[in-house]
Amino acid sequence: MLKPENTAKKTRDHTVFFALPLPVRLLLITQLLFNVGFYLVVPFLATFMHENLAATGAMIGLVLGMRTFSQQGLFFLGGALTDRFGVKPVLLTGIAIRVAGFILAGLSTSISSLMIAVILIGFAAALFSPAAEASFAVAGKKTEEDGIVSRAELFALDALFSRVGSLTGPVLGALLLSTGFPVMCMVAAGIFTLLFFAHACIVPAVKTPPSESVWASFSQVLRNRPFLIFAAAYSTGLVCYNQQYLALPVELMRATGNQGALGWMFVFASVFSLALQMPLARWAQAHPRTVSLKIGFGLMASAFAIIALCAPFPAPTALGGMLALAPSILMLILMHTGQMIALPIARDLVGVLAKEQSVGTYFGFLNSCGGVAVLLSSLIVGSLLDAATIPQPQAAFPWLVLTGMMAASAVVLPMIAARATR
C-alpha cells in the first residue's frame, strides 16, 4: 500500500485533482456529470407518474423497482463485457442507451412506455458503471506506482465527485421543474449526449487487461473464494447506505411523530460527507487496511446500535423536541464516517483480490451482490420496521439486525484483507 510519506506533496487537498493524469481527471468530471444527469430526473419520476399518468402507489413501486433491478441486477454482465470488449465500447454503448432512455421517458404518455424507458436508463448504468470502476481500478494502480495518489484515495475522489453530482442534479431538476418533466428528461439526454462525444473524442480509453471470453471472466470470479466472501461482507455497506431511505424515516416517525426533518437530514449527510471524504480517506490510508476496515464497519454497526438502544423508549421533549433528533443525527455521522473510512479501502482491495485481472467483472459482480443484499435485507428489515414506529421493546429488532450485519462485516473483511497480498 502506498505510504503517506511517499505521496508527492503536491497531492494535498487543494491540488490533488490537478496532480492526476488528464484521462483520470476527465473520468472524475464525467462521473460528476453522470450523477447530475441521473439525479436531474429520477427523483422526480414518482411525482410525474402520480400527477401526470395517474399511477397507483403499487405501479410506481413496480416501475422504480424495475429500474433498480435492471441496473444493480445486471452489473455483473456489464463488468464481464468490459473485460471482453474493453472499457470504451461498453462505456459508449451504455451512455447511448441512457440517452435513448431519457428521450423515451420525456416522450412517454403511458406507464408502459415509461417502464421501458426506466429499464433502459437502469441497464445503461449496468454497462457504463462497471466500465468506469474498472477504469479507476487500473488508473489507480498506475497513479499509485507513480507516487501520485493511492488507488484507495482515487476511489475516495470518485466518491466525492459522484456526491457533488448527486447534490447538483436534484437542485437543477428543481429549477427546471416548472418547465415540465419532458424538458427535464431532454436536458438529461443532452448532458449524456455531451458525455458520449466527450468519451468518444476527448477522454482517452483506459486499458484494462482483456479476458478470453465473458464466461472465462465469470469462471475466474466464481472460483475466487476469498473474493466471494469479501463480496458478501462488503455488500452490507450498500445495505447500510440504503437505510437512509428505508429505516431513517421510521426512526424520525418514532422520535418526532412525522418525517418533516428527513430532507434536512439528507442535506446534513451530504455536506458532512463532502467536507470529510478526503481527510478521512487519507487517515484510512495512514493505517493498515485491516484497521481501517474494522473501524469503518465498526462505526456503521455502532450507528444502528445507537438507535437500537433508544428505540424502545419515548423520545425526550427537551429543547422543543430537538433532542429527539439526536439519535438520527448521530446515526448519520457514524454511518457516513464509517463509509468514508472503509469503502475506498475496500474498493482498492477488489483489484488486489482479482490479481488485477478481469477487474470489470469483479466490480460488476460486487455491485450485483450488493443489489441482491439490499433487496433481501429490505424484505427482512422492512417486515420488522412496522413495529419500530412507536417506542416499544420490539422497536429495537430491525436495528439489532442491522447492527449484527455490520458487526459481522467488521470481523470478516479485515480477515480477508489480512490474507490479501500486493
UniProtKB/TrEMBL annotation:
Task: Kindly name one Pfam family recorded for this protein.
Answer: MFS_1
Q: Which UniProt keywords apply?
A: Cell membrane, Membrane, Transmembrane, Transmembrane helix, Transport
Q: Main localisation, per the record?
A: membrane
| Localization (cell) | Cell membrane
* Gene3D superfamilies listed in its UniProt record: MFS general substrate transporter like domains (1.20.1250.20)
Domain Major facilitator superfamily (MFS) profile positions: 23-422
Q: State the InterPro entries in the record.
A: MFS, MFS_dom, MFS_trans_sf, MFS_Transporters
Membrane topology is: Multi-pass membrane protein
Please tell me whether the keyword Protease is annotated for this protein.
Answer: no
Give a yes or no for keyword Kinase in this entry.
no
Q: Which residues cross the membrane?
A: 26-46, 53-70, 90-107, 114-132, 181-206, 227-246, 261-281, 293-315, 321-343, 364-385, 397-418
What SUPFAM superfamilies does the record point to? Answer: MFS general substrate transporter (SSF103473)
Q: What is this protein called?
A: MFS family permease
- Protein source organism: Corynebacterium felinum
